[in-house]
Design goal:
Number of helices: 8
Distance between the termini: 24 Å
Strand order of the largest sheet: 1-2-6-10-7
Structural class: alpha+beta
CATH topology: NADH Oxidase
Number of strands: 10
CATH class: Alpha Beta
Radius of gyration: 18 Å
Length: 239
Amino acid sequence: MSGKTFEIDFNDLKITSSQIEAVLGYKEEEDRELVRGLIEEILIECRTITSIKAQYEIFKEVKFNPELKSVIIDSKNFQVKKIVYAQLKKSDTVALFICTAGAEIGIRSQIAMKERDFLRGYLYDVAGSEIVEVAADILQDELKHTLLESGRKITNRYSPGYCGWDVAEQHKLFGFFPDNFCGISLTPSALMYPVKSVSGIIGAGKDVKLNPYTCKMCDMKDCVFSRGRESRSFANHPS
């Protein structure tokens, strides 16, 4: 097992108001001046309130069970289900990862909502989700270049709670990291705190594939990021 822990400066994410607007569902021809000013204000705040941390661990001993559609890492059986299994099954190595934007942006979203400033609260929420997803893109790109040295390519990343993978398996995944690692903890119901955090698995091998856009593979119908991810999905991280 080997891995890497790192911190990411918010400015390195290069998130623009246009990215947030795309996630919100705005089209190019639509007027968004009112919301744009508020988004830009929030992004300026994010320079100082975010605490972006990430970690991945690489495992070279991995097995696959085609009947159960599961991945076995150090005797722990992850029942990732059909969609994720199909993308991972040609891997000879996997990485588990966690990533967070820190707690403050989620706290500010909650405060704004309690004060009935629903637009600001929602924009904090969307910005926090985009921050952690772009940070995870950076983590994934770092992993990709690390594994290229051994001739391996990587898959997309997949998280518990998506594509049929039971969110309760977060507990197994977090078992590979020290408690409160990167400042992230799990509730008994497997939800992460800070809420603007992601975790998951990435496959690697000579025969795997990194898809430019994978939302169509997923059976989750209410994911807000399917509106904005296609335009940015690994645009700066070609396979």
